[in-house]
Records
---
Amino acid sequence: MIDTDTPFALALDQVEFHWAGRDAFGLRVSGFRIGRGERVLLLGESGSGKSTLLSLICGINAPARGSIRVDGTEMVSMPAAARDRFRAEKIGIVFQQFNLLPYASPVDNILLPLCFAPDRRARAGDGRTAALALTDALGLARHTMASPTADRLSVGQQQRVAVARALIGAPSLIIADEPTSALDAGSQANFLDLLFAQCSAAGSTLLMVSHDERLAPRFDRSVRMEDIATLTREAAA
Ligand SMILES: Nc1ncnc2c1ncn2[C@@H]1O[C@H](COP(=O)(O)OP(=O)(O)OP(=O)(O)O)[C@@H](O)[C@H]1O
C-alpha cells in the first residue's frame, strides 16, 4: 500500500555521474521518484546502467551533480562517512552477487548491517531471534541456518540469506539487483511472494532491478532505464 502522507521514499533530480577516468561516459537522470510503500521494477538491458544507478541511490558512488533524497534526506551533500552510516540505517541492499562473507555464519551475515546502524539494531530487538524469524519466513530450514559458514549454502539459500540481511531491522528502502536471476520461473514467483510479504511486514519500499519483463505484472509499477536515464558513451576509437 502506498503511504501518501510522506510522498517519496526516493527522489532523484538532475543527477549526473561519470565513472573515474571516463569523463565522456556518463549517466544522467533528470527525475525519478518512488512513493513510500511502492514496489517498483526497474527494467533495462545489460549495460544500460542499472547497477550504476543503484550504486548512486545507495550512496556507494556519488554523482558529480544533482540531488538524491531517501526518505526526504539529501544524500549527495553528505560526507562519505555520514553517507555510509545513513545507508546502513535506511537502505537494505540485495547485491547481484549477494556479497555474503563466505567464512561467516549465515546468521552473522544477516546481522552485519546492524553493526553500523544503531537505530536499525534497536528496531530488530534480539538480532539472532530477528534473523531466524526472517529466514523462517523466507523458507530457509533451521539446519541450513546452523551451517558454520555461508559458503556451504546453495545459491538459492545464499540468495535468501542476502534478502534477510537486507530486511533485518526494517530499513525504509530495499534495493535488490537482479535477485531472481538464478531461479527458475516457479521459484521466482515463490521468491517474489516471500520478498513482497516481508517488505509489507517491515513497511519497506522496494526497488528491484531485472532484465525480465515478465516480472512486471507483479509490481505496482515498472520503469524502463531508457525512460528515466540517458547514457552518454565515449566515441568509438
Ligand atoms: N567500475 C567501473 N568503472 C568504469 N566503468 C564502469 C564501472 N562499472 C560499470 N561501468 C560501465 O557502466 C556501464 C553500465 O554498467 P552497469 O553495470 O551499470 O550496467 P547494467 O545495466 O547493470 O548491466 P548488467 O545488467 O549487465 O548488470 C557499462 O558500460 C560499464 O562498462
Note: The domain at 8-232 is CATH 3.40.50.300 (Rossmann fold).
---
Amino acid sequence: MNIEIRGLSKIYPNGHAAIRNVDLDIGTGMFGLLGPNGAGKSSFMRTLVTLQSATSGSILIEGLDINEHRQKIRAMIGYLPQDFTFFSKLKTWEFLDYAARLATNLKKKDRLIKVDHLLDQVGLLDVRERMANKLSGGMKRRLGIAQALIGDPKLLVIDEPTTGLDPEERIRFRNILSDLSQKDVTIILSTHIVGDISSTCHNMAMLNKGEVAFKGSPEGMIDQVRGHVWQVTLGDEEFTEIKNKYSVVSTIPVEGQWEAQLIATDQPHPKAVNVNPNLEHAYVYFMENQLGVSLV
Ligand SMILES: Nc1ncnc2c1ncn2[C@@H]1O[C@H](COP(=O)(O)OP(=O)(O)OP(=O)(O)O)[C@@H](O)[C@H]1O
C-alpha cells in the first residue's frame, strides 16, 4: 500500500482551517496519527476516506487520485469513525450480516461463514446472539472493526478507537490491530493516546492545529527529546516551585518527598538527573517546546 498526500488543506465553510498544507507518505503496516483534541485528525481521516473533499492538495492511494477514482478507492477502504453507532434492534451477528449485505455480493451461506469468521477474529463469537447495543464499550469497538473488515479492505482507517476503553480492552484492541497489520492490511489509526502509538505503530505523524508537527518513527520522535527529560526527588516546597516552572510528566510520592519526571531544555535543579525518554515525554516536549502549548 502506498499513500501519497501533498499540500492537503481543509477549510470548513465557517472559515476554520482544520488541515493545513499536510504532506505525508504512508506505506504498508501500521501508521499512527497522534494529536490533541481538535488537532484535525478526524478531518484528515474523513478526507482520506472520501467522505468529504479537500479544499486543496491531493491524495493518491496506490497511485489513484481519490477525486477521480472515488468508487475504486472506497472499495479498498474499511473505515471505523469515532462516533460509530449500531442499529438497536439487531443481534451482534445480524448487524454484521447487514453490513456484509451492504458491502459484498456474497450469497447467504458464504456471508454467514464470513460473519462468524470475523466475529471469531475480533473475539465476539461467544456473544454473537447478544443484541449489538447491549455489548460493552470495548466489544462495540471490536464489532466496529469487524464491520470495517467485511469488504476485505486493503486499507483500514480507524478514528480514535481506544478512547473510553479500560486498559484491558485497550490492549486487546491494539493486539487485534497488530494481528491485522501482519496480514497485509495497512492500518491508519488516529489517537490522542500516546500508548496506542508506541505499542503498535512503526510510523507516525503528530498533528497540531491542522499542521504536521512531526513525522517519522516513534523512536525518531523520542530521539528529539533525549537529554531533556529529568528526574528529581524533592520536598514539598521545592517541588511546588519546579511544578510551576516546568512540565511535570509524572509524580510518585517517595518517603515524604516527590519523585518527579519533567521536561526541561537545561538541568532544572542541581539534583536532577537525565532519564531515558519515552514517547509520552516526546509528546509533551513537542507540545511545549516546538508548538508553544503551555502544559504547566
Ligand atoms: N464541519 C465542521 N465545520 C467547522 N469546523 C469543524 C468541522 N469539523 C471539525 N471542525 C473543527 O476543526 C478542528 C479539527 O477538528 P477534528 O474533529 O478534525 O479534530 P480531531 O483532532 O479529530 O479532534 P477530536 O478528537 O476532538 O475530534 C476543530 O477545531 C473542530 O472544531
Note: The mean pLDDT is 91.
